[in-house]
């Protein structure tokens, strides 16, 4: 008996590496600490009522934000470990297997569990407020999405200490990801972590499309909807068409692994290249899914901090929406070297270059908006200005990669690594950071400290160029990606060392930002007006932090940049105060079902990961029961009485 | 499509009967290709064509019996989405076939 348990434990838990034992200990300690604090301060009920069961889009947004920052930390530590390993030739810090696992988890986490949730956090924090709505179209589904993401991410991260991490690259190409070469649970963790959170992403896409099309305040036509909401619409359209492809593709991969099917195997009629073809049909739209909302953020920030309406609103909308469609026609540029027919290569090379056009249009629009504006360089604007040169260079190297014959040289070299980090960090991360700095006061009621933020900003920016510029050169010098060590004779040593220094500078930048948040919670400048940046759109017309029902009175919109129009009218004295008429507010009730149902989804994933079918069956039954229970729940909403609205508003300094 | 529109306030989300019919049709359309493949009934090209035909029929059944494409008010977002969806489905299938043709040589 004891022998059996010991044997089970030694394969179940990851053993033999001091780094991982360290992680085990710290995870255990964190758990104990959390349980202790919650019990000591009697906070379990609070946690359940206020957070685990909430359907409030603002709270869900905050939870996404926290989760994504934690994942940025984990992905960042992975990155630093890799950079330490590559700092000098012949370093014996990580073994090759360990290095493989780390770049796999780094890539997967950064894209799917950092960028995606940070983006969903921003969707949730901003879109309903910007539209003048009281919540998203399906608040319950929104909670389901969040918890599916969260438990999918936890399942994936668990592979670090249980079972072993996946190590076949962030997209898990077969044949490497098949049973022959990747036995054991690591790949299954990858499949199920992504599968579960992917269902959540799909639901979020649906939710925000409906919210944007159906829940806008009266008078807000699509043609004067703020650009961030437009970008969310564009991104959500891509989500609903791209994520099903991902789901099916990795379901087929799972069938190959679990049931011995032959979709992507080397023999038996399968074809591994078909997997590449399918996964990039999701993968290419995916990179636009994450970057387009950043474009929306920049549009809001540039207009606000230049005190001008955005230049070329219509062309912006056109650019955002045309990307949503065009992004589905470029996927094969990720495997030009596969060796298909010349006409395929020509088609995809040209379509890739064409998609650069709408992006270029937007860059010019932002520049023209700034031109002759009264620019104030607050933190959101700093990140926006840093984004422009960074993204232009990243885009230009992207067009270089699209030149198919040349790509035979660049493909899978450090040139590629530098290119995509430049667009992902310079575009996506800088964009989301700009958005977080911009909307933070609306969510939390205080600004993030400028001084610490500037330190963080400069460390990130200088670190970025120091880290990634040398990698373009390394690519030309023949260094390929996923290389775990190299010899002195290659001549790559100096540039790699410089690159590692840059990575640590970015790490310091991140520490400054964590410090900034901690500091600002106590000392940050409080926002008493609700409009700390003198901004233009509806979310700034209500108090900060926004009350749970958002708008005491649903606004009637008169034009683009409605809040700016209102402020102008007040200044000119042409503003007619309409008698505010409070009415009871219809709100959704909290529910525990999303959380519980997601736990059952977790069981499904965990069960299949270890081939414990009984556990997966329990999971499926649980999910079905939760859906059943929800279908017969009729008491799902309530009214906030006028008195409560009035007193809440009064406590925020607004009298009705 | 629009002449089938059910005017008036009440939303028609289908009857039990239409759901049962849809359910049976979709199961039958799943079983046919399965049986054909498992028993090696036809040669390869014919099987592929049959599977594609069944897939298209399945798609139509889903749209009409479960997705209720005929319902919905103006503006007809469901039709717009459907058209975009068809374009993308076409791209996925035709694009894959085109790209993967190199296998033949
Ligand atoms: C914070 C600074 C970052 C550093 C220093 C960094 C560093 C690295 C390194 C060293 C690799 C592995 C290269 C190789 O051996 O092939 C890598 C791969 C990768 N990174 Fe980053 N990274 C950073 C941020 C990000 C971000 C923000 C994202 C996405 C939003 C990202 C996405 C990826 C992806 C997708 C891969 C490919 C993984 C694979 O080969 O399967 N990285 N990164
Ligand atoms: Cu691409």
From TrEMBL, chain B:
It is found in: Cell membrane. The chain crosses the membrane at residues 20-42, 48-69, 81-101. GO terms for biological process: aerobic electron transport chain; electron transport coupled proton transport. One of its GO terms (cellular component) is cytochrome o ubiquinol oxidase complex. InterPro entries: Cyt_c_oxidase_su4_prok, Cyt_o_ubiqinol_oxidase_su4, Cytochrome_c_oxidase_bac_sub4. Keywords: Cell membrane, Electron transport, Membrane, Oxidoreductase, Transmembrane, Transmembrane helix, Transport. Its main location: membrane. It comes from the Bacteria. GO terms for molecular function: cytochrome bo3 ubiquinol oxidase activity; proton transmembrane transporter activity. Pfam families: COX4_pro (PF03626). It is a multi-pass membrane protein. Belongs to the cytochrome c oxidase bacterial subunit 4 family. This is Cytochrome o ubiquinol oxidase subunit IV. The gene is cyoD.
């Amino acid at each position: 008996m004891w022998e059996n348990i010991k044997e089970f434990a030694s394969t179940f838990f990851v053993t033999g590496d001091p780094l991982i034992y360290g992680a085990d200990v710290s995870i255990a300690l964190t758990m104990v600490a959390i349980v202790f604090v919650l019990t000591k301060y009697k906070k379990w009920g609070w946690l359940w009522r206020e957070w685990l069961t909430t359907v409030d889009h603002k709270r869900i947004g905050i939870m996404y934000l926290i989760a994504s920052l934690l994942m940025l930390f984990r992905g960042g530590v992975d990155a630093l470990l890799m950079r330490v390993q590559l700092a000098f030739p012949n370093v014996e810090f990580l073994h090759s297997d360990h290095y493989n696992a780390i770049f796999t988890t780094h890539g997967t986490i950064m894209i799917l569990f950092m960028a995606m949730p940070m983006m969903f956090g921003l969707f949730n924090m901003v879109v309903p407020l910007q539209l003048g709505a009281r919540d998203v179209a399906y608040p319950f589904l929104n909670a389901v999405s969040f918890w599916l993401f969260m438990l999918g991410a936890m399942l994936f991260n668990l592979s670090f200490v249980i079972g072993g991490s996946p190590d076949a690259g962030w997209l898990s190409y077969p044949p490497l990801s098949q049973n022959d070469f990747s036995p054991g649970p690591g790949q299954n963790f990858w499949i199920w972590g992504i599968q579960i959170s992917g269902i959540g992403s799909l639901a979020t896409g649906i939710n925000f499309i409906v919210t944007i099309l159906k829940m806008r305040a009266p008078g807000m036509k699509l043609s004067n909807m703020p650009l961030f909401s437009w970008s969310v619409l564009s991104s959500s359209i891509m989500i609903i068409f791209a994520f099903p492809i991902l789901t099916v593709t990795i379901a087929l991969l799972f069938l190959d692994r679990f049931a011995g099917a032959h979709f992507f195997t080397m023999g038996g009629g399968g074809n591994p290249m078909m997997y590449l073809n399918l996964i990039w049909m999701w993968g290419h739209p995916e990179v636009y899914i994450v970057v387009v909302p950043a474009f929306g953020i920049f549009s809001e920030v540039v207009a606000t901090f230049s005190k001008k309406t955005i230049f070329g609103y219509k062309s912006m909308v056109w650019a955002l929406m045309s990307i949503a469609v065009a992004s589905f026609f470029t996927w094969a540029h990720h495997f030009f070297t596969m060796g298909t027919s010349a006409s395929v290569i020509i088609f995809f090379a040209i379509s890739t270059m064409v998609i650069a056009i709408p992006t270029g249009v937007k860059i010019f629009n932002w520049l023209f908006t700034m031109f002759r504006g009264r620019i104030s360089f607050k933190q959101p604007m700093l990140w926006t200005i840093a984004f422009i040169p960074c993204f232009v260079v990243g885009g230009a190297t992207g067009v270089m990669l699209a030149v198919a014959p040349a790509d035979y040289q660049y493909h899978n070299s450090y040139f590629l690594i530098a290119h995509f980090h430049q667009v992902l960090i310079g575009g996506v991360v800088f964009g989301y950071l700009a958005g977080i700095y911009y909307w933070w006061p609306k969510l939390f009621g205080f600004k993030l400290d400028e001084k610490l933020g500037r330190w963080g900003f400069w460390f990130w920016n200088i670190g970025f160029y120091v880290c990634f510029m040398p990698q373009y050169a390394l690519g030309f010098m023949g260094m390929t990606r996923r290389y775990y060590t190299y010899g002195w004779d290659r001549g790559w040593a100096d540039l790699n060392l410089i690159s590692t220094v840059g990575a640590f500078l970015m790490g310091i930048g991140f520490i400054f930002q964590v410090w900034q948040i901690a500091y600002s919670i106590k000392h940050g400048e409080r926002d008493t007006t609700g409009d700390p940046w003198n901004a233009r759109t509806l979310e700034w017309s209500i108090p900060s932090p926004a009350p749970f029902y958002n708008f005491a009175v649903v606004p009637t919109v008169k034009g683009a940049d409605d809040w700016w129009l209102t402020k102008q009218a007040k200044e000119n004295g042409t503003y007619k105060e309409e008698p505010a008429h409070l009415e009871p507010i219809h709100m959704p009730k909290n529910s525990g079902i999303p959380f519980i149902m997601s736990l059952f989804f977790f069981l499904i994933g965990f069960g299949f990961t270890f081939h414990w079918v009984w556990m997966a069956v329990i999971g499926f039954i649980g999910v079905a029961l939760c859906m059943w229970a929800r279908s017969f729940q009729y008491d799902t909403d309530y009214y906030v009485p006028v008195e409560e609205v009035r007193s809440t508003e009064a406590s925020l300094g607004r009298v009705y | 499509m629009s002449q089938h529109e059910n005017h008036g306030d009440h939303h028609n989300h289908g009857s039990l009967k239409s759901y049962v019919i849809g359910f049976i049709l979709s199961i039958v359309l799943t079983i046919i290709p399965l049986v054909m493949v498992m028993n090696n009934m036809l040669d390869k090209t014919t099987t592929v064509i049959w599977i594609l035909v069944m897939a298209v029929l399945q798609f139509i059944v889903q749209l009409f019996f479960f997705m209720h494409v005929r319902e919905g008010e103006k503006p007809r977002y469901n039709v717009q989405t459907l058209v975009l969806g068809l374009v993308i489905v076409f791209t996925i299938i035709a694009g894959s076939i085109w790209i993967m043709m190199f296998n033949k040589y």
